[in-house]
Amino acid sequence: MLLQSSVSITQEKLHSAVRRYESPEEHAFFPDRLPPQSESMEQIDYPNLLSNDPAINELNWNPILYQKYLNVIIPSIAAEGDDEQYGSTCVTDTAALQALSKRIHYGKFVAESKYRSNPEGFQRLVDAGDADGVMELLTNAKVEEQVLTRARLKATTYGREPMLSSFPMARNGKDGDSTSIIAAAAAMAVVAAVEAMQDSGGDEDNVKVKGKVDPAIIEAIYRELIIPMTKDIEVAYLFLRCGREPPKEYASDRMSIDVTKLSPRRAI
Fold this sequence. Notes:
Elements: H1 2-17, H2 62-77, H3 86-105, H4 107-117, H5 119-127, H6 131-138, H7 141-157, H8 168-171, H9 178-199, H10 215-241
């Protein structure tokens, strides 16, 4: 963990020097370790898409994301043991953490869009201190299910051989109907994805997952960590946007509904 932190801090210092963390969707994991911003580079004039409240800039969910990545995500996707690939692992973990951070902090932009579509509704709930009501109003269950389905489908095909090469028209090198080839390849990919999802079904204790990752675990990461953290950010943002401090359960060093272990839902 010490090596991982050192790699992350060094990379963040480098990225800070080229103004990465001036971008409103970028957030450092170790902001107190960043050097002063160099005056040799001009500041970038980003579009004013968020609230002007300075407190918005302090919404940084990286502390809890970092904890959940180490204590929940890694044990769920990595085999026990020591492969001695410390350097590669640290670099990869840093890239994954930065990508997850950007993903959940897009919640600020989503919250601003939702506020503009219904300012009176959110203002009324915030004035009443109704955080549950704010969460309910911003939740779009249909979109969340689409995200989960997409994550699971992508996970089922990750690390598998591309199937277009096995399609007869692609093998013989002849000029065929390209539309038919693409349609057939897409159909084959869907069939493979469905088969892979079925491979992870059944008795959870006797699951034999084909491919690089367990699709049920990837879906669980989105369902129980990424989406909830994004929505926590949205609630905190909307409270600030409406002129009130967020409730303490929406502080950036915790999850409003804590997760200590993933609970994958198996396909049937």
